[in-house]
From TrEMBL:
SUPFAM superfamilies linked to this entry: OmpA-like, Tricorn protease N-terminal domain
Biased composition (Basic residues): 660-670
Pfam families (alphabetical): OmpA, PD40
InterPro entries found in the cross-reference section: 6-blade_b-propeller_TolB-like, Bact_OuterMem_StrucFunc, OMP_bac, OmpA-like, OmpA-like_sf, WD40
Organism: Leptospira kanakyensis
Record's keyword annotation contains Cell inner membrane: no
Region annotation Disordered: where it falls in the sequence: 651-670
Signal sequence bounds: none
The protein's name in its UniProt record: OmpA-like domain-containing protein
Length: 670
């Protein structure tokens, strides 16, 4: 099943479900459409590429296969800007190639291509000569994963006949192929026929979130008619599968006085193995009837005076495909207002044509106040728009919660909507998350979420405490908010360059006499990463008579690479080759962990005045920053801080001690 993983440590924020905006239907101009034929558009799963057939100039001969790239990709809502189409010269010949179908793999790359062509022995390139029967035939080619080239097309002997066989449509799982043929045994002119194949090898599911090919190989069986519920005495052509393989789109000229083609679709009843009675698509797909006022403009609307309505009635609508996110239809039509003969159009998939499936929402609600988090009793309210539709509860559990199988809530909802989930528990800050299940979510999918609720801590009394003389500090664990009993604090200012140890009383540290200048507090505790806290002169008055909390992080909360230290010779700023080797490891770590942010702290010994040492420590930190930038670490994830001599890790009384203080080290930033 499809799995998402979301970890949330956030407070309430307002989120409202919004429907997808209506976007105008589009007829594309040049370079996509021309005065020639642009027909049978096949849109790639993500909407990045459009493959179609055309007899435009610049091809190999008659009708060819062409491909264009969406320069607006990956924006799904922005109007596509199509690149000048390129001829698929690897497959095209001087004869006819068109009316094709593409099977995409789990990586959304073309895997197989089935197309319509004719027998031909006249090609200059012998690889392009084709076997076959008289008339139109179906051919198959497969991409070579090693070379990236398409194999020599093969005539499908087991599927083709001595009649006209054309317009193949392969199901997304690769197990069925529907095509149009006028062979004997049908009902009318051209009917839809279906051939199936069984997989001859078992394929491992590499990514359940992508279209899965079950039948990558195997022999196609003898075709049979799709049946009388779909076929008529008229013509059925241009089949195309929906991405889930349970709906078939096609064109038919049934019951049309002008013998013009309109789009239909038929649902596949998997339990009884047949296609149900087809349904006629409405505006803006078809032009056989007056279009509704819901359509968004010419050329989809009939002109107000109906002056050219007869031209609309005499239009054909053939060849349709949908993106895998169920947002967009692409189709071809020769309706009035186009560039030439058949043109390519795009319209948003109507809401009533979008599929809905059962979707599993499960996961863990965790207690964020514990050092080792446990499952929490909580209430989850799931809203569709503003109406509560489900209320579920999570249970308090312990044990190993590190695996994706650990859960304390589970429910089932329907796809096709935007949900808002409120999560609350007494004594904790509530939170919200969105479940956007609109568009193509698919069958048998789920979302796994870890939701961390933070406890509501007592509000601090901001009034001065008369029992505190001067300024008081207390040291706590950043994660648990518990007091660290073995902490040590050192005071630094411009006159106290060696630092002064503060006396601890019940894990509190008092400055009985308030400083008169900027000062710094260096805090150390066994098992925690040391930290320096900077306080400016103008903040001192607001700290008097109050308790200021200094937070340290447990060393177990850090990757060991955060303990990397770069040492510098006296008065030096440049990196050695050995330093660069250390930084290479740290750069790799930051690139692989995209949520990590780091402070680069520069330090000096206490030789020289404060202003000079601030500049020197900043230069040292900048040299490291610039090297990490060269290694492609984004600048937004790094911060430079100059600490001068305020964070000694050794005594400054000896050269050995001073050499340890001339350094750059690293601190994780939230």
């Amino acid at each position: 099943m499809k799995k998402y993983l979301i970890s949330l440590i956030i407070l309430v924020f307002p989120l409202l479900a919004q429907p997808l905006p209506k976007v105008k239907d589009v007829r594309f101009y040049q370079p996509l459409n021309t005065q020639n034929v642009e027909y049978n558009p096949i849109i790639s799963p993500t909407g990045r590429y459009l493959v179609f057939q055309s007899n435009r100039p610049g091809g190999e001969g008659g009708m060819d296969i062409w491909i264009s790239e969406n320069l607006s990709f990956p924006d799904r809502m922005k109007l596509p800007v199509w690149s000048p189409p390129k001829n698929f010269r690897e497959l095209n010949t001087t004869n006819f190639e068109g009316m094709f179908s593409i099977l995409f793999d789990e990586e959304e790359k073309p895997y197989e291509l089935y197309f319509t062509s004719v027998r031909d022995k006249s090609q200059a390139d012998p690889k392009k000569n084709r076997e076959g029967y008289d008339g139109l035939n179906l051919y198959y080619t497969k991409i070579n994963p090693r070379t990236g080239l398409w194999s020599v097309p093969i005539h499908l002997n087991e599927v083709n006949s001595h009649f006209e066989d054309k317009m193949p449509a392969v199901s997304p799982d690769g197990c069925s192929m529907v095509f149009s043929s006028n062979r004997p045994g049908g009902i009318g002119g051209f009917d839809l026929w279906i051939s199936k194949r069984e997989p001859s090898t078992v394929t491992k599911e590499t990514n359940p979130d992508k279209p899965k090919i079950r039948c990558r190989d195997g022999v196609w069986q003898k075709p049979i008619s799709v049946g009388t519920t779909v076929n008529t005495k008229d013509d059925e052509i241009s089949p195309s599968y929906h991405w889930d393989g349970l709906r078939l789109y096609f064109s038919s000229n049934r019951e049309d006085k002008n013998r013009k083609f309109s789009f239909y679709y038929s649902e596949y009843n998997s339990s009884q193995n047949y296609f149900e009675t087809p349904i006629l698509l409405g505006s803006p797909f078809n032009t056989k009837q007056q279009l509704s006022g819901e359509s968004t403009g010419f050329p989809f609307d009939t002109p107000a005076d109906y002056s050219t309505y007869s031209l609309w009635e005499e239009s054909d609508n053939e060849g349709i495909s949908a993106t895998f996110d169920d947002l967009w239809f692409y189709f071809s039509s020769n309706r009035p207002g186009g560039e030439g003969q058949f043109d390519i159009y795009r319209t948003m998939v109507p809401e009533d044509l979008r599929r809905t499936y059962e979707f599993v929402f499960r996961g863990l609600v965790l207690d964020g106040s514990e050092a080792i988090m446990i499952g929490l009793d909580a209430t989850l309210k799931i809203y569709d728009d503003t109406r509560p539709i489900q209320v579920i509860t999570s249970k308090r559990i312990g044990g190993d919660l590190s695996t994706s199988d650990a859960e304390n809530f589970r429910t089932t909802i329907k796809t096709g909507k935007l949900y808002r989930v409120e999560v609350s528990s007494p004594g904790f800050h509530p939170t919200e998350l969105l479940l956007d299940l609109r568009g193509n979510v698919g069958k048998d999918k789920e979302q796994y979420s870890q939701i961390i609720l933070q406890p509501i801590r007592p509000t601090k009394d901001e009034r001065p405490d008369k029992t505190i003389q001067g300024i008081r500090f207390i040291v706590k664990d950043k994660k648990t908010d518990l007091v660290i009993p073995n902490a040590i604090c050192y005071y630094f200012d411009d006159l106290t360059r060696k630092g002064k140890s503060l006396e601890s009383k019940d894990s509190r540290f008092d400055l009985e006499k308030s400083p008169t200048m900027d000062f710094e507090i260096l805090v150390r505790a066994k098992g925690f990463k040391e930290e320096t806290f900077l306080f400016s002169k103008d903040k001192i008055s607001s700290m008097e008579g109050k308790e200021t909390v200094l937070y340290l992080r447990n060393l177990n909360d850090f990757d060991s690479l955060y303990n990397t230290i770069i040492y510098f010779p006296f008065n030096e700023r440049t990196l050695s080759d050995e330093d660069k080797k250390k930084l290479d490891l740290f750069a790799d770590f930051l690139i692989q962990h995209k949520n990590e942010k780091v402070e680069i702290g520069g330090h000096t010994d206490n030789v020289g005045n404060k202003e000079y040492n601030i500049s020197l420590s900043e230069d040292r930190a900048l040299s490291v920053y610039q090297y990490l930038r060269l290694k492609a670490v984004p600048k937004e994830r790094m911060k430079v801080q100059a600490y001068h001599y305020s964070q000694p890790i050794a005594e400054n009384e000896t050269e050995e001690g001073r050499s340890r203080n001339r350094r750059v080290n690293f601190k994780k930033i939230d």
